[in-house]
Amino acid sequence: MMNEIVTALLASVPFIGALLCLTVWSRPAHVKQTAIVMTMISLGATIALSPFLTVPPEGFLLLYLLPLAACVSILGQPTHETHRSAWVLTLVFLGLGVSILGSHGVLGKLALLVLFGLVIGLLFRHHSSLWPMSWWGIGVYGLGAAAAVTSAMTEPPISTIASLLACAVLLPLVPLHSGYFTALTRLPGNLPSFIVVLFPAVGLHGLVMLTPVLPNNVAVTIMGLAVIGALYGAVRALAQSRMRLLLAYSSLSLFSMLWWFAAAAGITTAWASVFVGAVSFGTSGLLLAWQAIRTRYGDDVDPQAVSGLASTMPRFAVLLSLTALAVMGLPPFGVFSGFMGLLLTSPVASPAALFAILLAWLATSWYILDAVQRLLFGQQRPDLPFTDLQQSEFAALLMVVLVVIALGVIPAGLLGPDSAPALTSAVTGLFAWNK
Amino acid sequence: MEQVTPSINIETRRMELRGIVQLAGEVIAQYWPMRTFVHHNPLHSLEYLPFEETVRRGKQFMGGNGYLPGDIYRGYVRAGRITVDHLDAALKQLAADAHVNIGLRRVAHDDVLRACLTDGLCAPIVEPLDAELFDPMDELIEQVAARLGSVLLFQDLGDRIRTIVEGDEAALGHWLTLSHWCDDTLGTQIVRQINEQMIKWCEAFLDEGHATWTMPGREKGLYLAWKALAAHEWSPCGIEDSGTKISRLPDHPEDALLESLDALGIPAELRQDYLSLQLTALPGWAGFIKWRAEERDYVWQKAYPVGLVKFLAIRLWYARELVQKACREELGIDGRYDAVIAYMRNNSEEHYLRRQRVAGRLPALYAEEVDRLGHQKDKTWGNLIERYRTEVVPRQEVAARRGAAKRLLGLARALGIDPTALAESAPADLNTILAWMDAFPESKHGPVWLHAFEAGYHTRLLGQMNRAVSQPVSEHSVLEPARPYSQSVYCIDVRSEPFRRHLESVGAHETYGFAGFFAAFIRYRAWGKEHDTEQFPVIMRAKNEVREIPRSYLDHVVSRHEIRARWIHAGHTLLHDLKENVVTPYVMVESLGWFYGLPIFGKTFIPALYCRWTAWLQRLMIPAIATTLTVAKLPPAETAEMLAAEQQAIVRKALQELIGLRSSRITPALVEGLRQRALNGDGDPEPFFLDAATQVGISTEDLDRLINSLQRQYDLNARSASRHKERITRTGFTLEEQVLTVDTALRMMGLTKRLARLVLFCGHGSTSENNPYESALDCGACGGNEGKPNARVLAIMANNPSVRERVVKNGIEIPSDTHFLAGQMDTTTDEVRLFDLEDVPSTHRADLARLQEDLKEASELTSQERCGRFPEIRGPLEGPQAESHVRRRSSDWSQIRPEWGLSGNTAFVVGRRELTKGLDLGGRVFLHSYDYREDPSNRLLEVLLTAPQVVAQWINMEHYFSAVDNEVYGSGSKIYHNVVGRIGIMSGPWSDLRLGLARQTVMNGEMPYHEPMRLLTVVEAPRSRIDKLIARHDVLQHYYHNEWVHLVALDPVDGVWYRYRPSGEWIPVNVDSAQVEHHT
Fold first, then answer.
1. A130–B357: do the CB atoms touch at under 8 Å?
2. Chain A within 8 Å of B192 (Cβ-Cβ)?
3. How far is CA A353 from its chain centroid?
4. Pair A141, A148: CB distance under 8 Å
5. Beta carbons within 10 angstroms of residue A111's beta carbon
6. Which chain A residues in 155-214 lie under 8 Å from chain B, judged by CB atoms?
7. Residue A295 with chain B: CB contacts under 8 Å
8. What whole-number distance in Å separates Cα of residue B628 and Cα of residue B626?
9. Are A297 and B368 within 8 A, CB to CB?
10. pLDDT tens digits along B258-301
11. Does B363 touch chain A (CB under 8 A)?
12. In the prediction, which pLDDT does A420 show?
């Protein structure tokens, strides 16, 4: 009961923030400031009240990251009246996310349904006939919502499978990745850069509960889909020229790796939170960096039209490079630590599958680096004006870099209750043949 | 008859094609191998066109800019290097007498044009469709944009589409190849793919000893060698069944090229331009091939023939296959000129969208839709264009209005007008201003900037010279002694100017300027070297050969020296072979790798010390020996003796190698007998010869085989002996030739009387480490080599009593106590070395000591001055510090800029030293001594304007274009340079052969060190004489009428400075008021 009350209290902060934003609606700068302040209050409140919450298996990491991600995504957005609704919606999404991650009862389930409903509504609102894939996305979120309802109203094993489907919609897994793709490419303003953290976090939260009870054949199926997803995402990302699509495929590939490890191990450790947090935060950072380009060259600028930014926008170039290095999985960033944590705490079910996963992992370096290279180097267009990052954009990207570094160097003991033992047992398990 | 006609037709077509290719090759410049770097104009072949037109052609064919970016010129304005007065003068022709009113301010047309230049208001900025970046002027921008709404009209989308189609139609074949068109329309990478293939094949084929494993079959020529090898490649660039296709190509490259042109459907009238475009896609490699094809005697060309036709035959085969593939797969049409034109006309909307998509000008969703439609069979482009028309075009118009408003606000700021006045001005006035700005885009600024920039420099230089020449004559004559301490002659190179100035300042020395080959056109072989160097300007040819030989009294040392040199050479060869072998490097790295640490450490941390140490070690192992040059021709008897000695050495070698005879058993009779038999062929052998052979156990059959081998394998036969004899007779000069050379040189230098006791001919060279461009720092007049041999040759000739006697008879007063010295200045360290000092008479020791002392002092002062120009040196350096600094630079292998070289060159002064004496010309001026009074026939001036001036103009244009567009006309940053094939430089592992000079040679950070401006030639001579020369020589007409070179004359008849106009008239230059009539 205490847990539900505290969760409701935490969730109310962003909702109140959303209401406060409405009171200053006519002044975009104030709306933005209010939203940022409320996300920071939300973060403070979460840290302060988390001792009163039941510790979830994945730890509190994702709960802490949510308000931070919301703050960063709003901060990185230019102050413009067209973005007001996105800022308010960010707060609403944050409230829903906190409710889902904090609650173990009806509040969380209700919030999940609202979340699906809201995103479906938004996608419908921003549908374009030039992007027919939107319908698939809306359909997949509809399926997610139906699965969430089914899981709430039925008993295992149906509820388990329904929950799994809802998780696969949120933490994208082939073939249910269309919703995630549509959200990342079609949602307005800063929402994609927040959604990319929120949805996987919520998905992981659900997955943590499910992995121990998954039947073996389902786990094997998931592993198969995960390997396919990892390779498919990597291959499609290699062929993308659109930044948002590239990041969507890239994160699909990386999240598929998490699915593989989770299904192979039959348990989800706190390393999964580090991995998901780092991948989603890094991707959010790259989306923010892309947002900086869109701010300068229009909302639907073609990435091929912009290049040679290293000399003209040096601050942007440095932060973009660091964020890209993080997403590519280089140490000391969180993606590397998370991946290594998962690798060392999971049994190797199939060497061939592991090889495929590693291949997809290496491919990330290729396409991310290629995209960054295209932006930063190459011919500089003389007909484009160049303006380096403004203070708020710089702060947002800097925060992203600091967070992904922090996730990379965070001591294992702070991650969650079972991370260290799990790591130890896995490592000792590796050498069991020697005994 | 029926069989003959087709073959005649084919031959006619081939000849016609060769002619077209030759004309097509005009747009690319020849590229000399880097070991004899020759400064030249990269657009040299187009000098028959006006400068501005050539620059346009350069942009069209090579994509190079002919002027500096506007920002740099604006930097010059801020720094005062370009004044507003000069800018206004340059704008005079463009400005109309019109004005509009903005608020209370009257804004004239020239105000707007000037502001466009100085504030960069005409830069082609594309206003983003929905940019959200905050601008404090947003509100005002919107107001002004709204005001423009009624007057700013935009082209209808349909018209825009038509314009693009018409533009592409006009461009195709003229300045757009089908490959480029595919890349621009379909997003393919055909040009890159072809370039990669061509680089691969050119790199392998043109290698001159760099590659360990050479390309097989090169003796067949580029085309056939490629055909033989490429047929085995597996689907290069994705071309299906490439092996069969290549093997079916004709054996004649001309036929293959014609076949490809026919397959691409290129109309006959476009073929020349089309081939030019193909050549300019890789101007470096094509330029080198062009050079080699013209050098028929070049040893590598003789061995592995190459030419532009062969190059184009290969290139166009790839082009035709790839264009066909792209057009078929993407558009379902033939990859032919006519099919592409028809596609553009019939599918103009699709073409427009595709082009916009590839150029990155479509919003992302539209770009994706274009991609999607491009892959669909059932394509409905009409819907998309309609949507584009209703959704995107209005946004583009809004953005364009915002952009126009921003430009107007920028103009208001530049002119000091209250920006809010714009929001209240008449829209028509605003529109007029915008029209003025649009009519003066940044692409038209270059000529204006250049004229203003040059005018500033001309004003200063002519002002300086006018002041010098206006000084009372007595001032000099009183101070100068009757006979100077010494007279020295330096190369006209701009680097000589500071040294000459400083030498004149430290003592009563007179200096002269002359092209650094000192009128000695020689092919030279240094002692111990295996190859000749061509010591004359590349536009000339040599008749005489000169060799460096040890002095006769050193015979006993020579053999020891040779043995040691052979050992060192063998060691080098062994190390090289071990490094290049397939297996040995694995062992070598472990066993000898550490040994290389020593030079790495030394060169990196203690470069100067390491350099001294290695020089000492080299002297210890192979001590230097005194040498002289074979200046005089050998008498016939001596020639025969020399030839026989060389042939006997060959016979001895053959006996050792083929029969295995020890040298002690080889008798002179046997050697001579074999030599005679090899040279004279048939007939019965002499009995003494047979006896000698029998004594060493050689049978008659073995003798026949041996003689056969000598003739074939060792090239010892009558024909080669004749050739060899001819070469030996080319060595040296006859007495008449020597007299002519000395006489001409001294007259051209102006050294005809009052000669000092010591006269120094000082060539120049340079010293740098790890510098592929080191020959660019050497003497251009000596074909990119050091000038030392030429100086020595002239000094030896001038000291020859027989020559002097004849020269004196010709009217040149050479006192009996005058001794001619040879020297060389190291332009990196400023040190002057004198040669053949043992020939200096003992009576001249004191003069020599004084000269050496003053040269040392001048060298130190020059180093000090030069150090002030290096960007990393903050304050002035003391003499010894400066000396040590320049030495360190010359030995530092990480130094990207050992010296500035010829950067900064701007002018060429032909006249007496009095015009420039005492002036600090900043090391920017070529100085050639010339006294019109000594040249009544005008012959000397003719030579100066048609030879040294040409070299100066080449140097000037090389620097000009390398500075204005270093990526296209220069060679980019040295950081990425890699030597390829011992012929040139590539950027990274894979690029065109880089033309021109490195970025570090011409740029100082973001600003040019070499201020690019066209050469100013200043001649002190009567105008009538100059007019005659211009009328006689096309090259001079091209230079002055096409504005490649500015010509100013100081007419001694009236003492007035005149500028020569492109129209052929002379106008007086008012140098006193520091105004130069220019561009009016």
1. no
2. no
3. 24
4. no
5. 22
6. none
7. 131-133
8. 7
9. no
10. 999 999 999 999 999 999 999 999 999 999 999 999 988 888 99
11. yes
12. 42
CA A330 to each of CA A150, A176, A333, B836: distance values in angstroms, whole numbers, following the listed order? 41, 28, 6, 66
Q: How many other C-beta atoms lie within 10 A of the C-beta of residue A358?
A: 14
Q: Write down the H helix ranges in A328-377.
A: 334-345, 351-376
Domain segments of chain B as ranges: 174-346, 552-625, 638-727
As given in the structure block, the two tokens for residue B732 are 């040296």
Residues in chain A: 435
Contact yes or no for A301 and B363 at CB 8 A:
yes
The arithmetic mean of pLDDT across residues A306-335, rounded, is: 93
The token pair that represents B1015 in the structure block: 């050469």
pLDDT in tens, B914-973: 999 989 999 999 999 999 988 889 999 999 999 999 999 999 999 999 999 999 999 999
Query: Which member of A295, A305, A390 has the closest CB to residue B360?
Result: A305
CB–CB of A301 and B128 under 8 A? yes
- Cite the DSSP H helix spans in B63-105: 70-79, 84-91
Q: Is the dihedral of CA A248, A250, A253, A255 positive or negative?
A: negative
Residue A424 has pLDDT above 50, yes or no: no
pLDDT of residue A427: 35
Q: Pick B369's closest partner by Cβ from A80, A130, A304.
A: A130
Q: What are phi and psi of B896, to 5 degrees?
A: -85, -10
d(CA B856, CA B833): 10
Higher pLDDT, B716 or B215: B215
Whether B841 contacts B820, CB under 8 Å: no
Q: Please enumerate in sequence order all residues whose Cβ is within 8 A of that of B4, keeping only pairs 6 or more positions apart, or say none.
A: none
At B654 the three-state DSSP class reads: helix
CB-based contact (8 Å) between B124 and chain A? Answer: yes
Side-chain-side CA neighbours of B462 within 13 Å: the count stands at: 30
CA B948 to the chain's CA centroid:
16
* Integer angstrom CA distances of residue B995 from B44, B284, B534, B1011: 13, 6, 22, 19
Does the beta-carbon distance from A78 to B134 stay under 8 Å?
Answer: yes
Report which secondary-structure segment, H or E, holds B637.
helix B636-654
Burial class (CB in 10 A: 0-12, 13-18, 19+), B588: middle
Tell me which of A185-189, A239-243, B355-359 is least confident.
A239-243
- Residue B493 CB contacts under 8 Å (≥ 6 apart), including other chains: B516, B764, B779, B780, B781, B827, B902, B926
Whether residues A295 and B131 touch (CB distance < 8 A) is answered with yes
Domain layout of chain A by residue ranges: 2-430
The percent of residues in chain B predicted with pLDDT above 70, rounded, is 97
> Shortest CB distance from A298 goes to which of B124, B125, B129?
B129
Q: Are strands B1045-1051 and B1056-1060 parallel, antiparallel or unpaired?
A: antiparallel
State the DSSP code for A154: S
A395 touches chain B (CB under 8 A): no
pLDDT tens for each residue of A23-73: 999 999 999 999 999 999 999 999 999 889 888 888 889 999 999 999 999
Contact by Cβ (8 Å): A216, A157: no
Nearest to A383 among B124, B358, B362 (CB): B124
- Which 3 state secondary structure label does DSSP give A264? helix
Task: Look up residue A341 and give its two tokens.
Answer: 């944590």
Which of the residue ranges A116-125, B520-529, B716-725 would you say has the lowest mean pLDDT?
B716-725
Looking at residue B849, what is its pLDDT? Answer: 96
CB B792 within 8 A of CB B838: no
Residue to test with chain A: of B368, B375, B384, B387, most A Cβ within 10 A: B368
Q: Is A125 on the interface with B (CB under 8 A)?
A: no
Query: A44 to each of A64, B245, B364, how far by Cα in Å?
Result: 9, 72, 39
pLDDT at B378: 67
